[in-house]
Amino acid sequence: MLVQPPFKVAYMATLAERVTEAIETSDVSVAAIATACDIAPQSIYQWMNGETKEVMGDHLVELAELTGFEARWIAKEVGPKRRIYAKTAQQVHVLNAMQTMTPYQEGMVAKITDTFSKSPDDERNDPRAA
C-alpha cells in the first residue's frame, strides 16, 4: 500500500535547492550518485549550484531512487517529497483503518506513533516489557 506523507506547501525556488536537499538529507554521496548516473561528480555539483537548469531522464530517476525523494518533486516540486510503502501486514492494516478516520482521529494516531517512535530501543515504551 502506498502512503503519501504530508509535504511542505512552502515554495522552494530552484531545482538546485531541491537537488541539494535530496542529496544532503540522504545517506548517499555525490560520488555514489555520479557513479550510478555514469557521469562526473562535477556534473552533480552543477545540479546543486544551479549551473544546470534541468536534471534529465535517467539521471533524475537515479537521483530519486538513491535519495528516496520523488523524481517529480525534485524536478518540478510537484507532489510529495517522498513516498513511503507499508512493509508489514500490520502497517497495511493501520493504513487501511486510517482511510476511514476523521482528521481528529488521524491526529490522535499521529500522537500515539510519536510517543512510540521517540526511543525505539527503550524497553519502557514496550508494554510487553512490564
Task: Characterise the protein shown here.
This protein is elongated. Helix 1 crosses helix 3. The protein starts with a strand and ends in a 13-residue tail after the last helix. It has two domains: 75 residues, 434 Repressor (Amino-terminal Domain), CATH 1.10.260; 45 residues. Helices cover 53% and strands 3% of the residues. It is built from seven helices and two strands, in the order E-H-H-H-H-H-E-H-H. The mean pLDDT is 85. The chain is mainly α and 130 residues long. It has a two-stranded antiparallel sheet.
**Class per helix and strand makeup:** mainly alpha
Overall average pLDDT: 85
Rg, rounded, reads 18 Å
CATH architecture of the largest domain: Orthogonal Bundle
Order of helices and strands: EHHHHHEHH
Helix tally equals 7
Quaternary organisation:
single chain
Please tell me the total number of domains.
2
CATH homologous superfamily (4th level) name of the largest domain = lambda repressor-like DNA-binding domains
Fold-level CATH name of the largest domain: 434 Repressor (Amino-terminal Domain)
Strand content: under 5%
Placed side by side, the strands forming the largest sheet appear as 1-2
Query: How many strands, which pairing sense, and closed or not: the largest β-sheet?
Result: 2 strands, antiparallel
